[in-house]
Amino acid sequence: MNCDLLILGAGPGGYTAALEGARAGLRTILVEQGFLGGTCLNWGCIPTKLFLGATQTIPELKAQSRLRIATGEIVVDLPGLQRRKRTLVQATRKSMALRLEQTSVKLVQGVGRLTGPNTVAVESEGTFQEIRFTSLVLAVGSRPAFPPGLVRDGAHILDSTDMLDLEEIPPHLAVVGAGAIGIELGQFFNRLGSTISLIEMAPSVLPAEDPEISGILAWSLKRQGWTIHTSTTVERVATTDEEVQLSLSTGKDVRANKVLVAIGRMPNTAGLGLENTTVNVDRRGWIATDESLQAADGIFAVGDVSGRALLAHAAEDQARYVVRRLLGRTTEPYRSMPVPSCLYGEPEAFRAGKSFRELLKEGDAVKSSRYQLAASPVAQAFGSSHGLIKVFWSNGKVVGITGIGHRTTGLVTLAEVMVNQGWDREHIHEIVVAHPTMDEALKEALLAEQKEISS
Ligand SMILES: Cc1cc2nc3c(=O)[nH]c(=O)nc-3n(C[C@H](O)[C@H](O)[C@H](O)COP(=O)(O)OP(=O)(O)OC[C@H]3O[C@@H](n4cnc5c(N)ncnc54)[C@H](O)[C@@H]3O)c2cc1C
Description:
Strands 1, 2, 3, 4, 5, 6, 17 and 18 form an eight-stranded mixed beta sheet that branches. Helix 1 (12-23) runs parallel beside helix 9 (312-326). The chain has 14 helices and 24 strands. Strand 4 and strand 5 form a beta hairpin. The protein starts with a strand and ends with a strand. With 455 residues, it is of the alpha/beta class. It is 31% helix and 26% strand.
């Protein structure tokens, strides 16, 4: 079989590349070894947000009950929620398959392996077929990583994929890793009644984010009853039928019924046949790409496997760029600005543009302005006014916006537009923001006094 564009992996990156390529008239083949939708649809963004969305009223009602405005308890039917998830995921896979068919993308089910600079062999149930390509997009994604000594057993020591299929609520859940995945899944199980112990090697939760955002998040999680161990590693693990005992570097022990290991991800490059090409991996194992996302002549890598940003919208954006590049519609290098990101749960957090750390590293004169959500009528209405919006400025232009608090993820796109378009203070006066909304908090943060920042 021959094609113009061959894609390995049908997650957000590969699926987007396939649709864009076929729409532009390229003979496109998409190879997937598992389910359409990849990690995002099946074990990532969609199930986690379904779980958090379905239980969002629990922290909202708790906040109102603290204010003595409401009382009551919500009982969640976890097996029922699992059934709903399966229905939603299966229906979405079906509609994706239909869309591929309508767009004339040929879907080949099987495991793809590079056998030369222009050939891939696809194996399915012991049979092989060879596909010759003009251009190849590697969009094979990533999988959970485990630290030495903490081995997944599928019963007690679990990864995020296992956690998303649990039918029973663990009374005590230990979460190793305080990134977005650990915090979102911990929040979901905490809402269902699990006691959470969070163990993080770095000195703060969400270690890649602004220290103030991390601090507010830690405060909120502790208020929800979490025990947080930062600057801590797991030294020893002892498992019985009932529980796991984690001995920590601080000398403390944590006993839990389940342990979620969410310390990061690793690329799906094993067995991909990269040795048959000139594709290189970087020192952490991610596929190395140049400024046009090219890994070798005619071979591109998008999404998680390139290690640039482990987010679904990053994979999609990279895929669109690669197809535009192949079609000659752009000769620009791929964007250097970070993509926006969100943390869901209670509180929510977001970031558009550069982080505090990136800005400090670059050494530019940076100022910041802020707004505390305590004064926001919307945050007050939800009884959840602990949070802030922070804006970073360089040469009078907005270069980064971050925030944490109730429903703040709704600000991320407006923030991204402001950063992307390099807004200055005068631009803010050109828009009218409706009252009362969370957008007002963003506007207030932009108009507040700007102060020099330092480490
Ligand atoms: C718990 C969790 C929550 C998340 N929440 C969010 C979120 O809220 N927002 C967000 O933006 N991101 C989120 N992410 C990250 C997001 O899921 C990933 O960034 C995204 O799925 C990456 O897309 P991708 O196309 O690069 O790879 P993937 O989605 O991993 O897809 C890769 C596909 O390639 C297939 N494949 C692998 N090897 C081969 C081969 N040799 N041949 C054929 N097929 C192959 C795999 O089966 C898979 O289907 C979350 C991730 C997790 C784990």
